[in-house]
Amino acid sequence: MEEVVLLGFWTSPYVMRVKIALLEKGIEFQYREERDVFEDKNKSELLLESNPIYKKVPVLIHNGKPICESLIILEYIDEVWKQEQQLFSADPYYRAKARFWIDFFDKKTTTCGKKLWANKGEDQDAAKREFVECLKLLENELGEKPYFGGDHFALLDIALIPITCRFYTYEKLCKFSVEEECPKFMEWVRRCNMRESVSKTLPDPFKVFDFVLEVKKRFQIQ
Amino acid sequence: MEEVVLLGFWTSPYVMRVKIALLEKGIEFQYREERDVFEDKNKSELLLESNPIYKKVPVLIHNGKPICESLIILEYIDEVWKQEQQLFSADPYYRAKARFWIDFFDKKTTTCGKKLWANKGEDQDAAKREFVECLKLLENELGEKPYFGGDHFALLDIALIPITCRFYTYEKLCKFSVEEECPKFMEWVRRCNMRESVSKTLPDPFKVFDFVLEVKKRFQIQ
């Protein structure tokens, strides 16, 4: 009997990646929500023990063994549950390309993600330009395909779609429209949202917005 | 006929990873040294075309197709040349662990690597503490095994060993001894250096030191 536990937090796009992958694969799992992900003292013992280096969600605990870092977890899931629809292309070159774009996207969102909602003025404008530029590059990579994975919703789609639940927050706080900047990217977003794995996983963008406002208040970010 | 070209620069540990992997696999390749990796105007057309996003080495060009980012290249090599000794463990859990430690090491060396040779005073001391702490964690992960890969020199060994050619530079500029701090880690370094793939790839630490002094001079870093 397989025991699969996912430690998560509802606004984390990295956790959403793992949830979507598990749902796409049809893997039964137990989800445990962390109470708070900002202060170590509020984190569960299980999280602190399972990810002593970063103390961050997501952690996938498979038969007692913890696996950390979302992309590494996606690779693990695809390697262990091979009998289901594969998330990674069978072609090493396309696998490399998907890994490259996920890495690129993660680096970009790390550098400009927080600036979009926590900064003001020039810093925020620079982050907005960087973010839109990143989306345009991805839009270009998507091209005329229905999904980044081609005809199939696959790894890169799973890795990118969760952040889109923050678009409303970014647009509201930074005064821009992703739809205007990247209409084809938004077509892809709507296409993905029609999948059960995605619609069941992504939270309401309005609730995400309220949460970000709460975080700003908690940490006294104007 | 396979055409394998590696675009590199002699002091880049990321390039060394790829070289070692190719040598371990016994894959014939053509190596092209970049003249300068600091200014885009001095980079080769081939590099700028093959890695338009980052414009950085290493790039592996396999039958005309470019693959960027060292870890992604290692995964690609292992997936394409399957018939040779595998770099990745066959066990998904150990693969995940190796990926985790490489990612951790890359993040740490990105945050404290340059500070070790380009900063002074408190910033340098903080970077030194962070770097030693990182090595101690890796030493702990190594445990009593001859290699990170267990009995075999494998992925994590290949990913970590190149940075050790900078240890002399770090020790000289920051006044500390890796041997004193992490003796078991240094035993592993000597073990790896006995392999032809490693000894043929890693440059002379004294030349690396001279190069770093030149770079400091060029960019007027005191």
Written account of the structure:
2 copies of one chain form a homodimer. The first copy, chain A, has 222 residues and is of the alpha+beta class. Chain A folds into 2 domains: 4-80, 3-Layer(aba) Sandwich (Glutaredoxin); 92-218, Glutathione S-transferase Yfyf (Class Pi), Chain A, domain 2, CATH 1.20.1050.10. The first copy, chain A, has 11 helices and 4 strands. In chain A, helix 1 links the parallel strand 1 and strand 2 (30-33). In chain A, 37% of the residues are buried. The interface between A and B is medium-sized, with 21 and 21 residues. Chains A, B: One of its GO terms (molecular function) is glutathione transferase activity. Chains A, B: Its EC number is 2.5.1.18.
Q: What is the CATH top level name of the largest domain in chain A?
A: Mainly Alpha
Alpha plus pi helix count of chain A = 11
* Count of all domains of chain A: 2
Q: What is the annotated CATH architecture of the largest domain in chain A?
A: Up-down Bundle
Shape of chain A: globular
Q: Span between N and C termini of chain A?
A: 50 Å
Beta-strand percent range of chain A: 5-15%
Tell me about the biggest sheet of chain A?
4 strands, mixed
Largest inter-chain contact set: A-B, 21 and 21 residues
Poorly predicted segments of chain A: none
CATH topology of the largest domain in chain A: Glutathione S-transferase Yfyf (Class Pi), Chain A, domain 2
Which structural class should the secondary elements of chain A be placed in? alpha+beta
Strand line-up across the major sheet of chain A? 2-1-3-4
How many runs of DSSP E, i.e. beta strands of chain A? 4
Helix content percent band of chain A: 55-70%
GO molecular function, one term (chains A, B): glutathione transferase activity
GO cellular component, one term (chains A, B): cytosol
Function (chains A, B): Is involved in the conjugation of reduced glutathione to a wide number of exogenous and endogenous hydrophobic electrophiles.
Domain GST C-terminal (chains A, B): 91-219
